[in-house]
Amino acid sequence: MNRDGLLSVGATARSNDDSQLIPLINIVFLLLIFFMIAGQVSALRERGIELPESGSRAPAQIKPLLLVLETGGAIKLNAQSTSLAALDELLQASRHHDAMPPLALQADKRLKARELGPVLEVIRNAGVSDLTLYVRDGNAPL
């Protein structure tokens, strides 16, 4: 103790040096990552199941139907002009194995809700469950 009553730590006191633990921490994290990856790989392999080989290298993709709604009520499905009454039949004809393909919708921003509502009703009644609405990035130049 010094004359003020405080305990002084001299230069000869041993400092708390944790730098020797860093290599151990690195090894523990590397082992953790290894076992996480090895566990995932073995979980993906189902024993007793032989998967068939594919003749195609490209993954199967279902191309979405493109529905365009223009001002004035013009409707196009995959660049084919149609009417609201015939839209349901065209959507039903587009089914693949009782599944409706995804639908991409491009609607003019000047459409009124009363013009858009009946089209959305036909889409809903046709059983479309995957609908993508195309929009323009507000920050991008025209």
Briefly summarize what is shown.
The protein is α/β, with parallel strands linked by helices and 142 residues long.
Description:
With 142 residues, the protein is α/β, with parallel strands linked by helices. It has a domain at 65-133: Nucleotidyltransferase, domain 5 (2-Layer Sandwich), CATH 3.30.420. It has helices spanning 22-44, 84-93, 113-126, and strands at residues 65-69, 75-77, 80-82, 103-107, 131-133. The radius of gyration is 32 Å and the shape is elongated. The mean pLDDT is 77.
Notable characteristics:
142 residues, Nucleotidyltransferase, domain 5, 3 helices, 5 strands, elongated
Write the topology of this structure.
Layout: H1 22-44, E1 65-69, E2 75-77, E3 80-82, H2 84-93, E4 103-107, H3 113-126, E5 131-133
Parallel strand pairs: 1-4, 4-5
Antiparallel strand pairs: 1-2, 2-3
Strand content: 5-15%
- CATH fold assignment of the domain at 65-133: Nucleotidyltransferase, domain 5
CA(first)-CA(last) distance = 77 Å
Strand order of the largest sheet: 3-2-1-4-5
Written as H for each helix and E for each strand, in order along the chain, the element string is: HEEEHEHE
Low-confidence stretches: none
Helix content: 25-40%
* Structural class based on helices, strands and sheet pairing: alpha/beta
Reported for the largest beta sheet, the result is: 5 strands, mixed
Query: In CATH, what is the class of the domain at 65-133?
Result: Alpha Beta
Principal-axis shape: elongated
CATH architecture of the domain at 65-133: 2-Layer Sandwich
Mean pLDDT: 77
